[in-house]
């Protein structure tokens, strides 16, 4: 859970520390005091979007820090350490800075990370619910997601398998459409490949042949020049005419030293080295002579090599930079041609694969519908029980799980329509089911969609009831409710406070509210206090003592902090809350 949240230069808050703990913490304050800044600060710690407009006017940057107690949060600790952060005394500090220019920086356990990584690490810690979530719950997608979440691992597993099977089916159908519709293009491509392969086969190139022929052509083209150079070199090494040459000079030097070798070991060593040199010069002279003898001018061979190279170059202009690349392209072309020539066979294979894929989708879709229908009955009953406790004793929530049955067009072979147990159902990657929450607010009323059958106050209670029920299916340690009690008052507000207190028995609950009936149930009461020097307005967070709680509740009740009647009413609210928790 969060132990404390430190806020600096955010909105109207100059510098404040929000001390938290287990149980139910409530935050109240006058309108405009900055209660929502607490939720904004928490959103920043969860990796939310940074808005430079939230930086306090005149400040260079805003900063939010949160201290998280890691008891029982093994996965969270692992992620912190994987990102280079540290855990000290069982606590981790999350931090976020926003500059007035809009730049954002984030830290996890002292290690700098991108905001997206902060979100990845911190998001599992908190579930935030506000007025916007009520509108979200009106969307069919959100209702399906809530039902699947309540269904637990079993629904999630089948839903994941269905999504994979649906994507596979879509891929098979897409390829089948492409193969059938592009038969003419495939035939044209096959003809082009055959022509290219025949052209390559006619030349019959060998691996590396282009490199070898290029070297040979150069050698043949400069045969006379090379031969003259070789003869000159051979003459210099070992002359047939008796003129001075390298071999003769080396032999003379060796003879001079051989005559004195017995007088000095170093002279003997030099004589031995000269002996080695004469042997080497002799071998080198023979090799040069052999090279020179092979350098005959051969115009016919040169013409043949040039013609062969021209044929190879014609291939490399079309099919690769080198002959090796041409041969590789040829191998791939043979495989592709095999596929193209077997178009009818491929169409049949795809049709068989499609039948199998549609059967798997139908089976998993039917199983997913069965699980969702069972979960819908349980969730509807559980939320209805919660609504009874929230002063809606005759309200019932029904969750409809239906499918859209359609009549496929004659000859239709693809698309989002699948035969499931003899019914042609239209589906998506999420299944064939359309999930809708229906509310009957009073006895005898027909269930209606939430956007048509619930008032603002009723919708708030439905939202809270759903979250209380779903809380049992999640391991999120902290819940934040931002004025989800808007539009509610009287007895219903008391029941909302009681249910929030019940939820707080197993989780940390943080609630921003304007209702004294809800605040009375809190274990800890924090007020956002506003002050002004005539030109600058600031707010701070103050944890209230017991007598201060009574004054704050009296202000919320009557707008008067020192009214004896309001104080008595506030005291009565607190005592009633204690008695019924």
Q: Count up the helices.
A: 19
Q: At the fourth CATH level, what is the homologous superfamily of the domain at 1-134 and 469-544?
A: P-loop containing nucleotide triphosphate hydrolases
Radius of gyration based on Cα positions: 43 Å
- What is the name of the CATH architecture of the domain at 1-134 and 469-544? 3-Layer(aba) Sandwich
Helix/strand structural class: alpha+beta
Could you give the distance between the termini?
A: 22 Å
> Rough shape?
elongated
Quaternary organisation:
single chain
Strand content: 15-25%
Helix content: 55-70%
CATH class of the domain at 1-134 and 469-544: Alpha Beta
Sheet with the most strands, sense and barrel status: 6 strands, antiparallel
CATH topology of the domain at 1-134 and 469-544: Rossmann fold
- Mean pLDDT, rounded to whole units? 84
Instruction: Give a count of the beta strands, DSSP E runs of length 2 or more.
Output: 17
Name the poorly predicted regions: none
Read across the widest sheet, the strand sequence of neighbours is 2-1-4-5-6-7
Protein name: DNA repair protein RecN
InterPro entries: DNA_recomb/repair_RecN, P-loop_NTPase, RecF/RecN/SMC_N
Pfam families: SMC_N
Function: May be involved in recombinational repair of damaged DNA.
Considering the chains and any ligands shown, give keywords for the structure.
581 residues; alpha+beta; Rossmann fold; six-stranded antiparallel β-sheet; six-stranded mixed β-sheet; 17 strands; DNA repair; ATP-binding; nucleotide-binding
